[in-house]
Amino acid sequence: MDHSSSRNKKGIDGNQQDAKQEQLDQYRIQNTGKPMTTNQGRTISNDEQILTAGERGPGLLEDWHYFEKMTHFVQEEEPERVVHARGYSAYGEFECYQSMKHVTKAGFLQEPGKKTPLTIRFSTVQGPRGSYDTARDLRCQGVKFYTEEGNYDLTTIAMPVLINNDPMKFPDAMHAYQAKSDDDIPTASGAHDRFWDYVANNPESIHMVTWIMSDRGIIRSYRMMESWSINTYLFVNEKGVATFVRFVWKPMLGVHSFLQDEALKIGGIDPDFHRKDLREAIDCGAYPEYELGVQLIPMEDEFKYDFDVLDPTKFWPEELVPVHSIGKMTLNRNIDNYHTESEQVAFNPANVVPGIDFSNDPVLQGRLIAYHNAQVHRIGPNFQELPINRSLCPFHNNQRRGPMRFRIDVDQVNYHKNSLANNTPYTTPPEEGGYEHYPKKVEGHVTRNRSASFTDYFTQPRIFWNSLTPVEKQHTIEAFSYQLGKVKSESVRQQNVNLLVNVDQELACIIADNIGVERPSGTHISVSTSYPSLSQANTPRYANTLKVGVLIGDGFNGKEVTSALQFLQKNGVFIEIISEKLGFVTGADGIKIKVNKTFLTSSPYLVDAIYIVGGNSQYQAKFMQDVLGFVHDAYKHYKPIGLASTGQSYIQTSPNNNLAGVVFAANNPNFPQDFTTAIAQQRFWNRK
């Protein structure tokens, strides 16, 4: 696997770098092979010792080189994001499938085949920048389109609902969700009293929490993450007709998740699992792809449905409001500098282009204010001038000065209106492309009340629960039991099962038994609706880009093993050769295979399947023990297991197990095909 930077790789269509990359190239600096200088350009003769009065004397204040170096070091970290602190970015492009001019005049959605460069940042929410990737959490996917009409930011999260339906409550939810202020514990976890106290006393939160406790909360990969805009926007066409719209990104590889045991342990084994997974896939040319879908509701149908179209704690069921795929995003380039291309990228849902506008969704209205303030606090009032945030189209206005201003505006005039500069920069009429807000009707008395239609807190959580398979329900029960089991307050635990009974009585009673509180009285609301689109059981499945750990020693059947590995690689499977030490293993027929991981540096938790070749080792007992450890964990996690003819002794057959997902090579000429099919299925829940 080539882990080199993808800096000089071309886009997937083989054309030259897109316009955004050409713009960024002006700021990319190569320091290799260059003489060291200070920030002022003075060459440096010594970068290892401070200036002193004699070899054993005190340091001198005139040591300007040390002063500059240390001053920069102690100030080189900007304030961390208050939420979404841990994240990772990549570059890509968006290709429009079909003209959407019938509903929007957004330029990047007008022509089939039109491509728009973009950057994307994936992130968790609760944990700080130094937390781990696989924590159970809601995740964000921020995409910045560098369109010809300016930057368009589309922010989405990995579930279609939010924890609050009013922006006033968001700070409270995050205060409760994050680590305690007295001891800063726990890190990247909602398994504590404060969060669940908030949930129990703010019932609108139970919908999102149920999604987080499902498999959706512990995704297998950013490449396999579905995400929704949550908020309701407006599409506006050239005729001035508006349509309610919500966006959803659907990964081409399908939507897949870890088990809770895997997510927790990978957090310790490899805290950077998701970012490594993304970076390695792009470097290998296995570019992650996502289709952009839109759900459209005519303005006149605002009150047609049982849910409020403006309520961000409610999803729009695909079975009622179909998803129309309008384009595809392909991530085809890794970042070169984490700080300047991921930490300093700044998103804002207010960054829209003509043809995209805002509804009266209350949380969206609150977000339009919050993001800009957050970016100014983090990286200053001129953050939009940083290379990663700079638009492709030129921008001209009367904003001047401020810290870290890059632009050198040579005009004398910085106000509007004026005569000295012929009233420029000038405004652009809407008919010539100037942005114009949709003239939606606004009326009502000043109030702090919310529509009664927002107070149906349990119908949709009930529908979501009904839509899960028995396996998915069991995983959700385990997650609730784990999280609430860590809550010290018996009262808070009891309050939560009393809340959950509205979603499902059996769910609440099982959890109550697991966490040592009374079973709640009452029962769930009378809703039997379910939607197939809500279950991951109906997602596409492919072997492509899944990782197989090959457990191998010397003396293997070279022809059999190399044939299987070649077939797997031909089908896009990532291979990890694991043995007791790095170097090579040698088959009985002299064939050598390079080992790239050892039992110490790998883990059954880090692969999607295992291929047990077995073989001989200098320390045979230890080798067999290590292999059996992989087999045990892979088997209990329902992963596919392939057995070479030399590896059969590592799986014991008996009437008590059905060995679902275990594929034998012995006397099976179709082993490579059968094993690849098993890898694509990923989990065998019927295994005993």
UniProtKB/TrEMBL annotation:
Keywords: Heme, Hydrogen peroxide, Iron, Metal-binding, Oxidoreductase, Peroxidase. It is an enzyme of class 1 (oxidoreductase). GO terms for biological process: hydrogen peroxide catabolic process; response to oxidative stress. Pfam families: Catalase, Catalase-rel, Catalase_C. The keyword Translocase does not apply. PROSITE patterns: CATALASE_3. Its EC number is 1.11.1.6. One of its GO terms (cellular component) is cytosol. Transmembrane segments: none annotated. GO terms for molecular function: catalase activity; heme binding; metal ion binding. Heme binds at residues 81, 121, 170, 367, 371, 378. Residues 1-23 are annotated as: Disordered. It catalyses: 2 H2O2 = O2 + 2 H2O. Its cofactor is heme. Residues 37-424 form the Catalase core domain. The keyword Magnesium does not apply. Belongs to the catalase family. PANTHER family: CATALASE (PTHR42821), CATALASE-B (PTHR42821:SF1). Decomposes hydrogen peroxide into water and oxygen; serves to protect cells from the toxic effects of hydrogen peroxide. This is Catalase. It comes from Ammoniphilus oxalaticus.
